[in-house]
Amino acid sequence: MIKPSLLRFSHRTSVVCALSICTSALCCTLFQTHAFASLPDKAYTGTAYASLRRQARCDTALSYARVQADPTLYRGKVIEIAGRVGGSSSDGVTLSIVVVLTDGNAVSVDLPASASEALSEDPTGRVRVLAEVGSTEISNTPPLKALGFVHEGDIRRLEQAEEAKTKAVKDAEERRREKEEKWKKEAERAVSVNRVPAAPILPPPPGGSDTVSLQNYLTPRARPLFWPYYRYIAKTNERLDAAMAGKITFHLLNFADHNNVDPRLVVAMIFAESHFDPNATSRSGAMGLGQLMPGTARSLGVDNPYDPIQNLGGSINYLRSRLDTFADHALPGGSVSFEQAALAMAAYNAGVNAVKRYNGIPPYTQTQNYVRKVISLYRQLCS
How far apart are CA 289 and CA 273, in angstroms? Predict the structure, then answer.
């Protein structure tokens, strides 16, 4: 850094005095940038003023009242004076204006006499002035050297546009948080409907599309299945939008995973029941994806069978209990056999007592067609 003493004989006295009291690199930078420039005699545009404010490293939070309280602490700082022009005087060279601040303080700032025309362009008389705090060696009141000024209306329009952008970003962030919180509550409700111990489901990450990010919140064994199942479900019912197809896929795999049910069997069952239509209603009053009857839904804690999350949680839980009823037909090691699956589906459709009464699939046309449809698709999906 150049020593102030070396500048003493190369510039006018006022500049040398200012430099001699500047001990920080920042102060030197500010004075080197602004001290030798002529005083502004024209109003800046809002954009140019905002640019100058950034370049001068103006502390917009620093009030003139704080500067007055301890002038030496803020010497060399650039502050912003905002208020109404309350008066002016000119000696033909310098125009001294009095800016009345919102707190009632009156501040005197010097401009070239030629600035009077620019100041009179705004009938409101409201201005912003960037000013550098000078030395108090001559007076207890720190002098302010104007670096630039702008009409209040010009800079306010720019600031309002920036505030609108900031608000839009803040609102978007708030919407993201609300969406994330909603997702978290849905996931917690899904686990409670599941009624089995389950790993916590995390909310989608910030900024990510639900459909894209859902797979990341499945367990490692279920995660690779997300896109193949999503594509199958979306193709099966093309009336589903991406968000609903993603939601159905995620919760189908999640509940199947935590209930330890083959998701291919669940897909075959939901296809046969509702063709993946969350709003499906049968002539007998069965509702939603898994076509739950009102009494069955209540017993499973499903208060809204048309909610795909509740319906899948209840339906898959119910299917798990049917599979457990016929566990003696499982394959060695506990894997589901086609026979066990067929009996479970018959019980899902006609009830456990009917299957036990006939010691197999009941001779009901509707039940036999249903079981045939589910197991046929299940075999295809397993092949």
Answer: 7
